[in-house]
Structures are given as C-alpha cells and as structure tokens.
Amino acid sequence: MPSPLYKSLIALLLWTPLSHADELTIAVASNFTRAAKQLVAEFEQYSEHRVQLAFGSTGAHYAQIIHGAPFDAFFAADARTPMRLEEDGRTQGGSRFTYARGQLILWSPKAGVVDAKGKVLQRGDFAHLAMANPRLAPYGLAAQQTLEALGVDDKLQEKLVRGENISQTHQFVYSSAAELGFVALAQIIDPEKPEQISGSYWRVPADLYEPIEQQAVLLSDKKAAREFVDFVRSEKGKAIIRAYGYE
Description:
5-stranded mixed sheet; D-Maltodextrin-Binding Protein, domain 2; single chain
C-alpha cells in the first residue's frame, strides 16, 4: 500500500501546472482591430500565452475599466484616456506609451464619390455622412474638428450618421447606409499594397484635427501582459503597426 508521503507527492504533481502559460484579455480601440489581430497572431507563434481581444470605442472601454472590467492591458485611440487611468492609479506604474499615431480618412467604397481635396464636404451633394461618436471615439472627435475647421459642421448636421465606434462607422459606409464617412486609414489600407486603396478617399490634412496619438497602458501585473507589450514595442511589432498606415 502506498505510504502517505507517496500519496502527497502524487497529489502535488497532479496539481502543479505543467507550464507557465497565461491567458490575457486586452481592450483595444476599434481602429486598431486589424493590426491588433496580426500582432496577437505573431506573438502567439512563439509564446505559450494566449490573448483574447475586446474591441470597442475608447470611451466605452474606459467606462468598463473604471467599473472593474478585468482587462490586463488597454490600447486606446488617444493619449488622454490612458493618462486619466494613470492619474487615478488604475495602471501599472510607468507602463504608458505611444504605440501608434492614426490618420483620418474621408472614404467611400465607390469610385468618384470623394475627391482628392475633400471638396465634396463643401458641396454637400450626398444624403448621409458617417462619423464615430465624438464623445466616445477619438476618431469621431477628429472628424468633428475637421468639419468645424472647414466651417461645414452646421450645414451637415442633418446628414450625419454616428457610429458608436469607428468599426460601426466603417460598416455604415461599407454597407452603403452612408455614401461616405470618416474612417481610420488602418481600416481601408492593404498592408501588402498600401498605395492601392479601393474606392475614393481624401486623406484629411493633419492640421485640421488634433493629432491622434494612441497610447497603451498595462492594467495588471501579469508577466505575460508585459511580454505582449514588449513584443508590440519591438521592431517586428512596430513594422506590423506601420504596415497598417500608422506613424
């Protein structure tokens, strides 16, 4: 009959993890969806950790975090929101960094709808213009600032269709619920052929809106979360981000 010590050793072996693999849940701003998915795919090729991504507007994620959502990291579409979390003591000290700078695009999947100088906004010869909610999404705020800078915000108010986030805004335009809309360059660029954007578009001049500086923060002290952030900040990670049109 096995001794009590032998039984204890067997029980200890059965309960000891065979690896140090961890599971992460990371909140990600909608504009960064495609790049984030590729970053995770590359990270998981060499790491034993697994990453689950939760996409949404920066404002919605902020509300979830302050109400206790168990995210391990947060990739926002602005710098202001991560800074607020840092000031409130909800982040890991010294973890905030800029991972991308976004570009705003006025886009239509149909050729000839949007001209190369954005004069279509002055003409107003369309029924609906999509943009993200400026109270929740930094790209929506950039779109609002653009309309104000051009002096057409009042004129176009009745034609605006607002998405909860930039992904929903893109869907409005892609599905023809709106003829054109303000989206992120990262949503329409092909990393393999960055110069061949389908449809018609206007790359909104950077001086028409505040810079879209996108920052990330660590929310938990998991070693795996820090390893993922380190990968994002590596040369390979930066190359993936640049391929989607970010600076």
